[in-house]
Input
Amino acid sequence: MFTRFLFLQLFMTVVTILSIAMLFTPIAFSSQEIKCLCIADTMFSGHSSEHNTNCGARANLRVKGWQGIVVFKFDMTNLKGSKADSATLKVYCSSITGTVSSPHTLTDMKISTIAHDWIEGDGDYAVTDKASTYDYPGGELGMKWADKDYDGNGRNGVQITVEDVINGLGGSVLNSEIPEATFAVNKWTEIPIEAKVIQPLIDEKQYGIVIWQPDIGKNIDIASKENAGGQNSAVLLVRARGAYVSSLEKVVSTWAMIKYGR
Output
């Protein structure tokens, strides 16, 4: 009887320790998809009349060579401590103008991180030094995107611009070549993104995802979070292992793994 009591007490102690451990440890049995919402977006234009303007309040963000560099920041909170496997960036095309029409397939689009933090701002091509522009991060982030001119392309009398911290320059991470991405007005486009781009966002070492294409003759307008009350805002679907879930979900998930082997 005494031995049985000791065994039961030992068993309960082990269960308690394991339960407490699970409260502080992310489950990493298999990859799961986490939906990350856009919390900030803007565009940077190096055009001679726009290079020092902020576009954080615009409903549509234009992908247009160095005259339209679009950046998104996503809420990665639920991915803290996890390891990314891959991701899909979903963006909504609101219009296509210039030298091309809808639908249009880009074969030279680049996706990268941005290596410097930025301020979304509330401008619509508004001149400001309090929020981010093509020329500078602005506000408390200062007036310099990088420590030197990495791309060798100064514009409008400014040698160091946002282009020095994107597309693999200045510590940013460039996604592998995307063979093609088709955009059509009032349609969603899904863009595959590699783990090497997502992981530094999870680890808070990079500051967003940039969409870039080289031709200033093409105007690909992407809906921002201000478009249609946020219904057309960009979404990042991340497949990762070890993503944090609630304490109850951890216990239930672990029990299911043990009981059903799934």
Q: What stands out?
A: The two ends are 37 Å apart (CA to CA).
